[in-house]
User: Which sequence fits this backbone?
């Protein structure tokens, strides 16, 4: 409440300062001619009667724009935007820009503030026009480029996002190649949805040129090749994921199993899983390997394998699978008790997220290459631990 009151008094303070200065100038001309304007007293009356909106509007109307009050108008507009009163912020900044007395620097600041107002209001086309005007105006170039990049990401205009990213990289010297690789992946996914897999593969190659460690590009390439029946090419793409980012191995396990089965070389998949389970322990790899063991050697071998693994790395998902395998080998009333445990494990699994952003903590069951929370790229990874991988 105190902060709100201070905010409401800001235009009053600004107006008072302006009027006191004006009074000082007028006093030299006529000591007896000064009196408070009626609108000033009317605004005070609005505040006293808690008619805050009317008071603010009246004070803003009275506050002339000149070199002494530009900063006050900018501060007011920014405060209104932060409070969510975007319409008021837009009116203030539009009023500033319309003044012919503004300096070039003041106008640029007002344009940038208005662009941010439009962004907050969702008027992306208007914001884009303003930020384009500012990208060649120092010191706003970097900030304007970043705002344009945000706009193009929201609009999913990946070609323009790539162009702006290259300009930002040239300006800041900070590499954006990993992010640009994701932009190319987005274009590739669009091509796939439009039934153009060959075009998608070309963009995925560009993604890997930008960032050889882009696991997403390899996963997408593997999926396209697998769908097209190019099984060996799909396997090569999926295998790259282990070198690029082993956190994403769970995303390619089942597609790899399908590929090796189609070639009749499932034994190679078993070797792949054993090798990677030793290097990158995770429940998804263990469960996949246990299922192949079950298919080849039976339930008992699979149960023994899972049991030994869980002694080293406890896991709710592992326990659930172990219970599932044991349920088929026991009789009542033991079966009933095991079923209760399995139901509890399933509820724990159902209620827990699978992925989490390592930057902001956003969590969910779906893999997002761009975090829906903080908008960072490639920060959402599978969760590890007893209830995760």
Assistant:
């Amino acid at each position: 409440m105190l902060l709100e009151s201070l905010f409401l008094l800001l235009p009053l303070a600004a107006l008072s300062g302006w009027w006191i200065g004006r009074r000082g100038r007028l006093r030299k001309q006529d000591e007896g001619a000064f009196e408070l304007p009626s609108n000033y007293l009317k605004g005070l009356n609005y505040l006293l009667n808690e008619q805050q909106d009317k008071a603010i509007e009246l004070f803003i109307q009275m506050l002339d724009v000149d070199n002494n009050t530009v900063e006050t108008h900018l501060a007011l507009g920014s405060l209104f935007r932060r409070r969510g009163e975007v319409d008021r912020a837009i009116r203030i900044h539009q009023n500033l820009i319309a003044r012919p007395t503004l300096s070039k620097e003041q106008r640029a600041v007002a344009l940038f503030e208005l662009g941010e107002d439009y962004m907050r209001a969702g008027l992306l086309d208007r914001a884009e026009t303003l930020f384009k005007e500012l990208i060649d105006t120092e010191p706003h170039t970097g900030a304007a480029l970043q705002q344009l990049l945000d706009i193009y990401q929201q609009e999913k205009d990946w070609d323009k996002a790539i162009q702006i990213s290259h300009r930002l990289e040239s300006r800041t010297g900070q590499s954006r190649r990993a992010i640009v690789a994701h932009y190319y992946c987005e274009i590739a996914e669009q091509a796939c949805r439009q039934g153009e897999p060959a075009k998608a593969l070309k963009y995925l190659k560009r993604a890997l040129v930008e960032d050889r460690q882009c696991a997403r590009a390899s996963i997408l390439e593997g999926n396209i090749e697998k769908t097209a029946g190019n099984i060996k090419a799909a396997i090569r793409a999926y295998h790259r994921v282990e070198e690029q980012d082993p956190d994403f191995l769970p995303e390619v396990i089942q597609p790899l199993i399908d590929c090796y089965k189609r070639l009749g070389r499932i034994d190679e998949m078993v070797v792949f899983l054993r090798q990677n389970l030793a290097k990158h322990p995770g429940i998804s790899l263990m469960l996949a390997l246990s299922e192949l063991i079950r298919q080849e050697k039976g339930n008992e071998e699979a149960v023994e394998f899972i049991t030994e693994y869980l002694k080293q790395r406890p896991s709710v998902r592992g326990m659930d699978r172990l219970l599932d395998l044991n349920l088929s080998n026991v009789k009542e009333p033991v079966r009933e008790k095991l079923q209760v445990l399995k139901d509890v494990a399933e509820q724990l699994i159902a209620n827990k997220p699978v992925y989490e952003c390592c930057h902001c903590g956003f969590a969910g069951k779906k893999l997002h290459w761009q975090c829906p929370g903080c908008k960072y790229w490639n920060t959402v990874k599978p969760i590890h631990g007893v209830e995760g991988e």
Remarks:
- The beta strands are 355-357, 363-364, 380-382.
- Residues 175-267 form a domain with the Serine Threonine Protein Phosphatase 5, Tetratricopeptide repeat fold (CATH 1.25.40.10).
- The first strand starts at residue 355 and ends at 357.
